[in-house]
Amino acid sequence: MHHQDNISSSPASGDLPASLEEFGLSKYEARAYLTMIGKGSLAASDLAYYANLPRTKVYQTVKKLEKKRLAVVSKQKPLICSAIPPEEAFGEIVNLHERRVKNMRKIVERLQKLSDEGQRPKGSEERRYFILDPDSALSKISSLVANARSSITATLDPWGLRLLAQCRGQLIKAETNGARIRLIVGAQCLGSESLSLLPDGIELKMAGGSASSNLMIIDMTHMVSVDPSNGKAALFASLDAYGAMQAKSFEEAWSKAGEAKHALEAQPALAAKAIELARAVENGLAAHMLEYAMNSEDPAGELVEVMERKYGLKVGTMSAPEILDLVDSALKISCLGWLKHDKSNNIVSLQSKAEGKHVLPWAVVLASYFKRSGNEPKIMQSKQSPQLVHVRLARPI
Q1: Cβ of 103: how many Cβ atoms within 10 Å?
Q2: pTM of this structure
């Protein structure tokens, strides 16, 4: 039998018959329902014709649709079949599935929580921190500083220094409350006006290089980390193992940092170069020079070239007074030391007052410089103090 206008060949129907199977309808039931939707109420024989159903299956099909509350069949013959409107017919089914999906999501969330707890290390506990925008960061830091009672420590770059300098009144209040305030600022802070805004009672040291973070610890109860790229801050309301580690790192950095007093009093260009030299010595140049000193009585002038090539320290073109001023500044910054030039005896003396920071590498710096310039040097270790070294020169400078 060839039907000219049945539902299965209608372009508008698309793959709806197959889609209705998602609702639990058989192929015959889907065809019958779609036909009634498109044609309206139909006699059973007409329904079979338009839906392309076997006549022997029509009655059984529409009774199943009626049982599923998708159709109504008249009680009298000829049987008239009518579809229940889609929103009414399928609304309850859709709502039921939505409730099931919602419950399934809750189950998945509970399962994920169990999974996360299972993967969490034993004995661990969750800690929270707060992200503050720049304005809130300044307000919170000001409040914490003003209420400090025992200690404030901070490692600062120029951004962090400007931020803390805005809390001058609060820093003075903290000092009045008895808080010890210690700051380590990066070498890039030299020349910053913010340094002059800090109260006098603050203990200030200069890092050997550029500071790469802003970390403040107040009373060992709060920690603030400030991002210099956007001014946002992370506030830790309590110090856990991470905070204790940061506090320990500060103490280590504090013991290695140089006094900032001389760096602040010196010309910014000289202080910056002295810090650069001190950093190079601490980062490997000292070991390099000590090797030369141990293997040869006379320092090699080639060390100046090594300093320039490997560490970028352009000392070969400096005048003798300039190199003396540079080493003097570096000693004061790195090890609280000093340099003295005895012109009458052509002797340069170098002293270190910081425990564990030897002055011999600095003597080798000078000896290498003078060797290269043709003024033969001789390094002499003081018998009275291992932290005092002399460099005798062949001729005056």
Answers
A1: 10
A2: 0.48
Please tell me the total number of residues recorded for the chain in this structure: 397
Note down pLDDT in tens along the chain; length 397 residues.
Answer: 444 445 544 434 457 778 888 788 899 999 999 999 999 999 988 999 999 999 889 999 999 999 988 899 988 888 899 999 988 888 888 888 888 899 889 988 888 887 776 666 555 455 568 889 998 999 999 999 999 999 999 999 989 999 999 999 999 999 999 999 999 988 677 667 888 889 988 998 877 555 667 999 999 889 999 998 888 999 987 777 777 888 899 998 888 777 776 656 667 677 777 777 777 776 666 566 666 555 654 556 677 777 777 767 777 788 999 999 889 888 877 777 889 999 999 999 999 876 667 788 888 888 888 988 889 999 888 877 878 999 999 999 8
CATH code of domain 129-260: 3.30.870.10
CA–CA distance, 357 with 330 (Å, rounded to integer): 12
Looking at domain 18-84, does it have CATH number 1.20.950.20?
A: no
Domain positions in the chain: 18-84, 129-260, 266-393
Angle at 309 between CA 306 and CA 313, to 5 degrees: 85
